[in-house]
Amino acid sequence: MHSAAAPLYIESLDQEGRGIARRDGKTIFVEGALPGEQVTVSVYRKKPTFEIGAVQRIAKSSPARIAAKCAYFGKCGGCALQHIDLRTQVAVKQRVLEDALWHIGKVEPEEILAPIHGPEWEYRHRARFTVRHVAKKGGMLVGFHEKRSSFVADMKSCEVVPGRISALLPPLRHMLGRLSIRQKLPQIELSIGEDADVLVLRVLEPPSREDEAILEAFAAEHGLYLYFQGGGPHTAQPFYPPAGADLHYLLPEFDVRIYFGPTDFTQVNHAMNRVLVRRALSLLAPQPGERIADMFCGLGNFSLPIARSGAEVLGIEGSETLVARARSNAERNALAGRARFAVCNLFEIDASGLAALGHFDRMLIDPPRDGAVELVKAIGDAGPARIVYVSCNPATLARDAALLTQTKGYRLQAAGVVNMFPHTAHVESIALFVR
Questions:
Q1: Is 426 in contact with 269 (CB distance < 8 Å)?
Q2: 315-364 confidence digits (pLDDT tens)
């Protein structure tokens, strides 16, 4: 590492929560630095136009700087912003969204929506822990990767998962160390429902009978459901109890219960998801009798509340497994009459393919990080009058916003952030486009 002699002035934060400074015409990205601070930096990566480093010493501190709650912050790569107070975290994410919309999309929202806040700690209902046996560190490690490393953080607690799960990490490590397959167990996926905690163990070879006895006793003692996953996510099968878990989460405002499998994609933060769905439905404003599209519908997280409003909804998703799950959710919520689902690859859809789905009065789009560029290109003159776009990547939202506003005749009426992942640099947002 190279140490910079003179302190640098931090101008702002980038999309990964790193401070941005300038020196000799180069941009310096500084982990652990805050806007307004003056810091010296240990540089670990040098390029012709930029450098990346970490704070070595803080010469002048920001009033937004706070002490991190987690003992492993700075080493564990799970969180990036615990040194910033929550209000400032949200303001930073709002600025990241606005900057992306303007610099990438050349568009400004007519209205900035009030940020959506939620629980600061113990919010993660999904997590993927890496498991590794490291003899020189005392045996089994279970945790997130260290920053900038493939090593597993030596952590015995985690502040962003529920307390009962955090407390489980030390006994889980001890139990896994007793297994004969401890070297063949690379990952554990956590999946939490309203009344079930599931651990999915990725097993590269079947456990022995002695292993099974150890695992069963552990699950019984801690009230857990254990699944084994021998291959891809679809191979996860219940081990104990044999019947498996009845995983679901609630959207009580819409009298909806969403059932899911332990490896299905669901929102990590159930409390924030409820508020996000409320905001999305408020902006979409579905009316009884209207026909509405829910693009990238997943399990029906937005589709079923839309159907509950009295509108007819068609949910589109590329995964047959998720579409089957969404249909089942519609039936179990007595909404199959107003909510239909179809399999379609929205990353390859064109104008004729979209037109074949029929006319939509309104549309909700909730794509993965790649965004929805082909879908947006496919929208024609008879497209929906109102589009609500839920995004997990400001850059692709901005790109798609440019297409909608500059080539499709829409206005960006409103946009704002949703702090779905406190203490991380992840920016979730929601935008409303109208014709």
A1: no
A2: 999 999 999 999 999 999 999 999 999 999 999 999 999 999 999 999 99
392 is catalytic: yes
Estimate to the nearest angstrom the gap between the alpha carbon of 222 and the chain centroid.
27
Are residues 227 and 349 located together in one domain of the fold? Answer: no
Q: What does the alpha-carbon distance between residue 105 and residue 108 come to, in Å, rounded to a whole number? A: 8
Q: Looking at residue 183, which CATH number applies to its domain?
A: 2.40.50.1070
Catalytic residue, candidates 70, 76, 79, 392: 392
What CA dihedral angle connects 162, 164, 170 and 171, to 10 degrees? -140
What's the predicted TM-score (pTM) here?
Answer: 0.93
Same domain for 230 and 276, yes or no, is: no
- By the 10 Å C-beta count (0-12 exposed, 13-18 middle, 19+ buried), 110 is classed as exposed
Look-up: residue for tokens 């497994």? 321
**Residue holding tokens 């390029």?**
47
| Amino acid letter, 243 | A
Would you say residue 85 lies in a domain?
Answer: no
Banded model confidence at residue 16, pLDDT cuts 50, 70, 90: confident
Alpha-carbon separation of residue 257 from 49, 199, 303, 334, 434 (angstroms): 51, 21, 12, 11, 30
Expressed as residue numbers, the domain containing 136 is: 126-240
